[in-house]
Amino acid sequence: MRRSIRISAALVAVLLIASWWLTSPQTLANGDLPDYEPDAVAGERIFWAGGCASCHATPVDGKRARGDAKLRLGGGTEFETEYGVFRVPNISTHEQDGIGGWSVLEFVNAMQRGVSPQGRHYYPSFPYTSYAKMRTEDVMDLKAYIDTLPAVEGRPDGHELGFPWNVRRGIGAWKRLYLDDSVVVDLGTDDPEVLLGQYLVEGAGHCAECHTPRDGFGGLLAERWLGGAPAAEGTGSVPNITPAAKTLSGWSAGDISYYLESGFTPDFDSVGGTMVAVQENMARLTKADRDAIAAYLKSIPPVE
Q1: Which terminus of the chain has fewer Cβ atoms in its 10 Å neighbourhood, N or C?
Q2: Cα(151)–Cα(39) distance, rounded to whole angstroms?
Q3: In tens digits, what is the pLDDT along the chain, a chain of 304 residues?
Q4: What residue segments make up the domains of the chain, in order of their start?
């Protein structure tokens, strides 16, 4: 009897240790960073490609920030989802309430490993599974640009999530399934324009976070990449943007690029809903970047 109790206790201990290891944060060390001098000017491009202001800019009178207010990254926007309420944090240069005291390494680990400076997992409502596909140099440039923006005082309340989603440690196991820095779609091409578009869409632009459906654990379904999905908030859906989409099948790459620049469709309709903020961000990119995004969207497999 005593022997069986000892064996059972040993098995429990092994399982606890394995669980602790599986859910532990996986981070980079200083030696993993490239020998690179960050460029704030280049970082501004990544800032708009990544749509940082769309989530992190502090709302003004309860409405989406416009103009220079987009550069006040005090957070505060709330997203009500099936998992609970997520509140966007302050990522301004404020030393206490924002990320002004972060090192480059801490910023990279947050962006590409989803781990806070305190060693806690971030929830994937922060799209680090997409940012993991970015070049680390671009992430370093992004921090250099954010460091030029104003400090904003105030720290939004934390998330309100139900069990088991409120157990952050479990996100470590989730990451082992879904955190991957490789490209999603094998396009079988060496066309530099298409590959640039792939980098912007799959990485910084994190388009799939809204346009791709998820499995039961919240991971993106690669086989239905950009094929449309239920809206994360409330009712409605996010459209299919693959070549099979009825709304885009008749659009040329030039039409897509112009839409991202102007907000107008080939039929002279205008962008609406949450896509307004995305289009305004894309309008700040170069024409070459928008053309590359369009070329990628015309090259991916169609999803019916």
Answers
A1: N
A2: 20
A3: 565 555 555 545 554 455 656 788 999 999 999 999 999 999 999 999 999 999 999 999 888 888 999 999 999 999 988 889 999 999 999 999 999 999 999 999 999 999 999 999 999 999 999 999 999 999 999 999 999 999 999 999 999 998 888 889 999 999 999 999 999 999 999 999 999 999 999 999 999 999 999 998 899 999 999 999 998 776 788 999 999 988 777 899 999 999 999 999 998 889 988 899 999 999 999 999 999 999 999 999 999 8
A4: 26-178, 192-299
DSSP states of 24-62: S-----GGGS-S----HHHHHHHHHHTTHHHHHSPPBTT
Residue type, 149: L
Sign of CA dihedral 93, 98, 103, 105: negative
CATH code, 192-299: 1.10.760
Query: Which amino acid is located at 252 in the chain?
Result: S
